[in-house]
Design brief:
The protein is mainly beta and 379 residues long. Helices cover 13% and strands 49% of the residues.
């Protein structure tokens, strides 16, 4: 009988873990209608990332607002942050309101792009709104607004996130959920009856996979909301950039840009896609390369520099970053220390003054003898 608990424990350990599942409904919405994200078996202390991105037509040099109202957060996120990115704008503002607390971040765009990250504990409950607003560029006819919430999950394993879309009469809403860096859900739905790819009005889930390349005019370029990375693919669906934490980076390398997780994560790019990163001004070009993350290992890809960009060809989605070597002054410091040590240890010892100088008595005696000699010569 004493072996029964051990057998039961071994059987429990042998059972497969229940996979987390996340679904979204409905497949199309109108302005002012809710979206529901149902979550099942989300492990405690897992890293949870939610991306909500809107793409909509705007008038040039006009005011815009994209808002998720009555945002129900069924669990808390510790060590969390809120990231807002906008493209096609000149002025920008992020606002998060819960009860009587309002967090506001505003700023101007650089080359039509704006990105800001705010460390913010996401607590359980209902938020009045997450709001992105601002002014479009004089040349813009569309804008992309993106909110990403990331943190460590604390709360029920089974729950539901919901929010009401406001300020978007026509366009698209893309939602993506990553758990511990792995995509669990990715979905794009039209707002206000906007036709999807191919003229349909139903939802679609990203790039199709086809070995036959379409004509050159059907290649599409998708850019991260901060404007620092882009991908050119032949598929008809969309590719999204989700900023993720820089993990498993060795001490010899540093992240110059990224990392970005390309969503949907299960996409295959045939023919290969071109992934491109902007090289920040002043960056040392030696040792730069685009890297991909597989498990816990970063692998440098064959990369090519052209003007102020670095590019690589990839055949599938995943997590990518622009890497460079860590530059340290260790060699210079060692050289200076060695030189100082040699000067200290090899410098000759100062001779004793008692062996090379005259004592006061000897000096007086010599002067006296000299005077006597002079007197004798005069006589």
């Amino acid at each position: 009988m004493r072996f029964i608990p051990l057998v039961v424990s071994l059987l429990i350990l042998a059972l497969p873990a229940v996979a987390v599942t996340i679904t979204e409904r409905p497949d199309t919405i109108g302005n002012g209608q809710p979206i529901y994200i149902t979550i099942r078996n989300l492990p405690e202390d897992s890293t949870f990332s939610l991306l909500v991105e809107s793409t909509s037509a705007v008038q040039p040099d006009s005011e815009f607002v994209f808002q998720m109202s009555q945002f129900v957060m069924p669990f808390a996120l510790k060590k969390s942050s809120v990231t807002a990115t906008l493209s096609g704008t000149s002025q920008n503002k992020l606002e998060v309101m819960k009860e009587s607390t309002i967090v506001t971040v505003s700023g101007k765009s650089v080359d039509g792009h704006f990105s800001t990250t705010k460390t913010y504990d996401i607590t359980q409950g209902t938020y009045d709104y997450f709001r992105l607003s601002g002014t479009s560029l004089p040349s813009s006819t569309s804008i992309t607004a993106q909110i990403q919430v990331t943190g460590t999950k604390q709360g029920p394993d089974d729950s539901e996130i919901s929010f009401v879309v406001e300020g978007l009469t026509t366009g698209f809403i893309t939602t993506a959920v990553l758990v511990d860096g792995r995509q669990v859900m990715y979905k794009t739905i039209p707002v206000g009856g906007t036709p999807g790819p191919g003229g349909s009005s139903t939802s679609y889930s990203g790039p199709s996979t086809s070995a036959t390349a379409p004509p050159p005019e059907q290649w599409n370029t998708f850019t991260s909301a901060d404007g620092l990375a882009s991908i050119t693919v032949s598929q008809a669906g969309t590719v999204g950039f989700l900023k993720v934490p820089a993990e498993h980076v060795t001490q010899e390398m540093r992240v110059i840009s990224g990392p970005y997780s390309l969503v949907p994560q299960n996409a295959t790019y045939l023919p290969p896609a071109k992934l491109q990163f902007q090289i920040p001004e002043g960056t040392h070009l030696g040792g730069l390369a685009i890297a991909s993350l597989s498990g816990e290992t970063w692998t440098l890809l064959p990369s090519k520099i052209q003007n102020d960009t670095m590019s690589a060809t990839i055949t599938s989605s995943g997590t990518y970053a622009l890497f460079g070597p860590v530059v340290t002054p260790a060699t210079t410091l060692t050289s200076v220390t060695t030189t100082t040590t040699l000067l200290t240890t090899t410098a000759p010892t100062t001779p004793s003054t008692t062996k090379t100088s005259l004592s006061p008595f000897t000096l007086v005696l010599a002067i006296g003898i000299g005077c006597i000699v002079l007197l004798v010569k005069k006589r």
